[in-house]
Design brief:
Helix content is about 55%, strand content about 5%. The chain is mostly helical. It folds into 2 domains: about 120 residues, no CATH class; about 300 residues, Fumarate Reductase Cytochrome B subunit (Up-down Bundle), CATH 1.20.950.20. Strands 4-3-5 form a 3-stranded antiparallel β-sheet. The two termini are about 50 Å apart. The structure holds heme C (3 copies). The site of one heme C has 22 residues, from helix 4, helix 5, helix 6 and helix 15.
Amino acid sequence: MRGLWILLIFAVMSGPSVPASVQAADADPDAPELFMANPDQGSRFWDRIGPANAPVRKNSTKADVHRGVEGFAHARYCLSCHVGQDKNLHYARTDVQCKTCHISRPLAGIRNPAATMFSEHRAEKVCAECHQGATLSMAEYVIHEPVPFAASTRSAFPALFWSAWTMVILAVGVFAVFAPYVAAWAVREVRLILKPATQMPAPGPHIERFSLTERLFHTVLAICFMVLSVTGLAWMFIETGFGQFLASLFGNYQGAIWAHRWVGLVLMCVFVLHLFYILHMARRQDPGGLTGPDSLVWKWADFRAFWHHLKWLAGMAEHPAFDRWAWWQKFDYWAVWWGTLIVGVTGLVMFDPVLTSEYLPGWTLNVARWIHKIEALLAMAHIFIVHFFIESYRPRAFPLNDHVFHGAADLETLRHEHPEWIARLEADGRVDELIVEQPPRAVQAVYFLFGVAMVALGVFLLIGAAWNFSSLS
Ligand code: HEC
Ligand code: HEC
Ligand code: HEC
């Protein structure tokens, strides 16, 4: 009977079921007075911008760090005192427990040589259990990553702070321009539609607007982009029903990660192919050459066209007479370049953390993931809002501008939207050689459905991500 009582008392004292609010009154492991400036901040460049600056616990060298800590018991739930320590990718996404990594007992401070977390043998004793071949350098990865945007991260982990903020400023900058732009554009077009005078020209012959190679590049890019968006969002939002649904399209979480990695590599290969294609085009002397009017290279005239289009939006000028490409088409093209470079390089860095950390300190993976994530969110927001607005949502394009899928575009519409191009073709007498037959109706329907499905998927992903944004990890 006495044994039973003891058991009962023990169970009550140690049970993890006690609500956290009662326990928060216990010793606070994050109290500022427990910390001091890092005594061995490195002087190498890598150390100065890395996490080596973070403050350390005064008692971090203790053999039993919980000795004397009020309310501590071995059976107690770690998170009841270490609030927020679960906000890390390992704890959230894998089935590791605090004790899987912090194994020693009694639990030693992480700067005590007996601790499993001691920097010298962390890699071998803990990380290598799951990451075969983990090195000391890889163990510099910050498991309990600080919030990159927090003021304290600026001195504790400068590289993470500055790179995350740079990416956010880039993203905010892009939308500060495009959000009002797109809104004004929508208003302008709706007003034009309401005016009965602006009749669209009657359909006439079709000419080739996109070559077969260009269409192929665009379609492969679109498919890769969508697969990467679905799997990437599944990865970021796996703790939510939305993320789990997206992952289930690829079997499960592991399937989604697998697809994300390999489709990412495929896209990188397509990008390299595109580079060769550009080199090939650069050797041409005709208007398709890099400096010619058919090329997507940004010119001074595009800034003027931007300004002119702005005036049109405000109702202060006629619509600008675009040549083959409008300024936003050139912008979108180069946005894919910079996006693919940023996301591609950081993706490659993360592809094999063990391999990467042979050349770079492990904490560059923390930085790479945030850059990758913010750029990917920016790219998705830009495609699903701005690009789809221009080519699908706005009245003149609705429900879909499918030129880029079948390549053919109505000559009279083009004369209206890209008058300089058509004028140039007519002056050179090249219109006739560009006239093409439209593909059969069934083929057109396939292109149309494909495009509309991409737009619908984009809208779904946009809403899902916005809805669950607070659970992003
Ligand atoms: C994947 C291994 C791993 C897991 C799981 C893990 N930790 Fe850690 N922990 C580390 C490493 C490595 C460090 C050293 C500093 C760093 O990388 O963040 C550390 C440092 C700490 C520190 C001291 C530094 C700080 O941030 O204050 C505390 C406290 C801590 N861990 C508590 C926990 C708790 C509580 C859990 C469970 C929610 C947990 N850890 C889960 C690996 C892990
Ligand atoms: C009663 C609250 C409480 C519980 C429960 C608790 N801790 Fe702690 N822990 C603390 C306090 C307070 C400190 C800081 C001690 C100091 O600096 O003097 C600490 C320190 C640590 C450190 C040292 C970090 C460093 O910088 O060296 C680690 C690691 C740690 N705890 C991990 C854990 C793990 C893992 C668990 C679960 C098995 C756990 N703690 C349970 C309160 C608690
Ligand atoms: C119990 C197994 C386990 C242990 C122990 C473990 N990891 Fe991991 N780690 C994983 C898994 C699983 C993932 C993939 C997480 C995901 O789904 O995103 C991962 C991912 C990573 C990544 C990639 C993160 C990214 O952003 O790309 C790094 C870096 C990493 N771990 C470092 C470490 C280090 C350093 C240690 C030792 C302190 C460690 N891991 C201990 C299982 C483990």
